[in-house]
Amino acid sequence: MSEVIVVTSGKGGVGKTTTTANIGTGLALIGKKVALVDADIGLRNLDVVMGLENRIVYDLVDVVEGHCRIKQALIKDKRYPNLCLLPAAQTRDKNAVSPEQMQKLCDQLREEFDYVIIDCPAGIEQGFKNAIAGADKAIVVTTPEVSAVRDADRIIGLLEASELRNPNLILNRIRMNMVKRGDMMAMEDVVDILAIDLLGVVPDDENIVISTNKGEPAVVDASSLAGQAFRNIVDRITGKEVPLLNLDTNDGFMAKIKKLFGIGN
Amino acid sequence: MELLNFFNKKTKSGNVAKDRLKLLLIHDRINCSSELLEMMKTDIIKVISNYMDIDETELDIQISQTKSEENNGTVPVLYANIPIKNIRKANNNELSRI
């Protein structure tokens, strides 16, 4: 039984593409067949985050317009044999595709793959409508900021209006030291305000920048805390019950020393 | 330090963000534009003016939130502050009716 999941947020820059790349790669690592679809036509980025930008021949619009077969456009990731990417077109815009065409595309991919993960563009216009058209499930990504949570709330309303009920939340870029001193909204606050199920919390982690620089998703990196958070999210997507990650590990040097000697908590 | 934090809790920026967000979302979710609120205000003035003399310039209507006893959260409320100019008008009306 395959699943089509759209990763959306409303606001730009909260980590949709990074989340898509990490969830997709994570699912592939545990043996699932995964297709990543970049629905951000005109501003494609998923190829770069995945490090596959040099291998694009055909794109989503080519498939939809019948210039090539879907197999020809799918880029097989050589590092993870179960993973494919369908890149967006860079020279076209969101109106090049219709929701019906996206739905058809998703149904075709469904036959080949266990999971189809769609990277939704920012905004609530045509690109958003296209990206959600063929999805069974939605993941809403937000950060603990007023603007991002506000947009997430709007997106949740629009998803429910489009029959995509019970979207799941990923709270990205949380900084525990700031939450502790009261200068960042806590996970509970955001979940309470948005009133949807939490799929996972991802800490603000320098490793994400480093892995994006290299084009290798952080989920592969065993030492990255954000990578661990994404591995947990992947497990939850497959139906496993995994407790939330303890994010209190980066308190600074002294806390680490104390922990080493078993002092304190 | 902990004690200081305790007293400071309400003014911490995280809490400020939470409170701003809650109010913001009440407006967003109700989807009540300022024009709609203005129309409602005119209608309320019309109705109440039939019964008492109110201060139209000082009249204040807004959507806000209040603590609810149920499910220990907050609920949206339509808040209206309508100052009465002349309480006698009501009585006069009664008189004229007799």
Offer a concise description of the structure.
The complex is a heterodimer of chains A (265) and B (98). By secondary structure, chain A is an alpha/beta fold. Chain A contains 12 helices and 8 strands.
Instruction: Please bin the fraction of helical residues of chain A.
Output: 40-55%
Question: Approximately how much helix is present in the residues of chain B?
Answer: 40-55%
C-alpha geometry of chain B:
elongated
Molecular shape of chain A: globular
Whole-angstrom Rg of chain B = 20 Å
Strand order of the largest sheet of chain B: 1-4
Largest contact between chains:
A-B, 18 and 16 residues
Q: Which ranges of chain B are low-confidence, i.e. pLDDT below 50, for 5 or more consecutive residues?
A: none
Strand line-up of the largest beta sheet of chain A: 3-4-2-5-1-6-7-8
Oligomer: heterodimer
Domain module tally of chain B: 2
Distance between the termini of chain B: 70 Å
The unreliable regions of chain A are: none
